[in-house]
Amino acid sequence: MKLTYLAMEQPDTLHFALQDSIDDAEINPSRIPLALLGQFRADVEDFLKGSGKEVDPTKVLVSIEQGSFSLVATVEKTSAPGLWNDVAQLQDPSTLGSVDPKRAAVVARWQEATRRNPHRSYGLTDKKNNLTIRVHSGSDFYNRDEGVWIEVEKYLQGTVIDAGGSTNPNIHLRVGNDKLIVASSQKLLEDEEKNLLYRSALLHVSAEENLKTGELRNYKLLSIENYQPVWDEAEFNILVEKGTQAWKDVPDDWLEEMRGGRK
Question: Is the pTM of this model over 0.85?
Answer without folding.
Answer: no
